[in-house]
């Protein structure tokens, strides 16, 4: 791979989730041979051991099913992973993902026993994906009106979890810009956009594997979406790069998607033929 691909560094799980949402969900209902995942992640620099390890972890978490046919292992999506990927895909495919139309804010407070660290981690991850920033310990805020159902569902079966959420508008005289800067690191967020643009707002390298590039693009885009809470533009400055990031992503997807789909179909067909 060229520098455009090899300089990108993503966890195997990020790459698998990007692959699942873009090319597997609603297209391949049957489990796919392990070889498919080894080949795709191998093309972007992930070792076979690391790929097998993340497949095992996702299976243990209920996001993949594992099937054995002789010496060939295959992995398929579960209902849980399909729901998560569909939720993510809606945001991935939004034409203007960084535009905030609402003037409201969603506030959320939660308390959770310290012993539930795994649930706390998953809850914080879901809050970040939903656009929340932390004002202070246990008090989170997000721009717009956020559907809290999926967040509450993270800890539905956990004893001792308390979540309260409500929609509010700033009172007159409130320095909204101040709490925006407290809840989010705008300099770091700008850097995330500029890094995305630096890597993708240039001609695609000739002769490179479109499937590998498409997988990297998807993982990078999801990382950017996860980082950006979609704040009102008046708090970000006129030169905020969000719209440019969205335009670049759309251009690169158009250039790669059909070729990546064809390459993935060939890979699946060849892997199944080897059984």
> Structural class, please?
alpha+beta
Which percent range describes the beta-strand content? 5-15%
The helicity comes to 40-55%
Euclidean distance between termini CA atoms = 29 Å
Tell me the count of domains.
Answer: 2
Categorize the overall geometry.
globular
The strands making up the biggest β-sheet line up spatially as 5-6-4-7
Question: What's the main sheet like?
Answer: 4 strands, antiparallel
List low-confidence stretches: 1-6
CATH topology of the largest domain: Arc Repressor Mutant, subunit A
Quaternary assembly: single chain
How many strand segments? Answer: 7
- Count of helices? 11
CATH level-4 homologous superfamily of the largest domain = Winged helix-like DNA-binding domain superfamily/Winged helix DNA-binding domain
Evaluate the radius of gyration: 20 Å
Topology of this structure?
Blueprint: H1 3-6, H2 12-24, E1 32-33, H3 34-42, H4 48-60, E2 64-69, E3 72-77, H5 79-92, E4 105-111, H6 117-129, E5 133-136, E6 139-143, H7 149-154, E7 162-168, H8 176-183, H9 186-200, H10 210-227, H11 242-273
Antiparallel strand pairs: 1-3, 2-3, 4-6, 4-7, 5-6
What would you say this structure looks like, in words?
Pfam families: PaaX (PF07848), PaaX_C (PF08223), PaaX_M (PF20803). Residues 36-80 form the Transcriptional repressor PaaX-like N-terminal domain. InterPro entries: PaaX-like_central, PaaX-like_N, PaaX_C, PaaX_trns_reg, WH-like_DNA-bd_sf, WH_DNA-bd_sf. Residues 102-146 form the Transcriptional repressor PaaX-like central Cas2-like domain. It comes from Modestobacter marinus. By secondary structure, the protein is an alpha+beta fold. It folds into two domains: 1-98 and 185-275, Winged helix-like DNA-binding domain superfamily/Winged helix DNA-binding domain (Arc Repressor Mutant, subunit A, Orthogonal Bundle); 105-168, Alpha-Beta Plaits (2-Layer Sandwich), CATH 3.30.70. Helices cover 53% and strands 13% of the residues. The chain has eleven helices and seven strands. The protein has helices spanning 3-6, 12-24, 34-42, 48-60, 79-92, 117-129, 149-154, 176-183, 186-200, 210-227, 242-273; strands spanning 32-33, 64-69, 72-77, 105-111, 133-136, 139-143, 162-168. The strands form two sheets. It has a four-stranded antiparallel beta sheet with strand order 5-6-4-7, with helices on one face. It has a three-stranded antiparallel beta sheet with strand order 1-3-2. Strand 2 and strand 3 (72-77) form a beta hairpin. Helix 3 (34-42) crosses helix 11 (242-273), helix 9 (186-200) packs antiparallel against helix 10 and helix 10 packs across helix 11. The chain is globular. Residues 1-6 have low confidence and may be disordered.
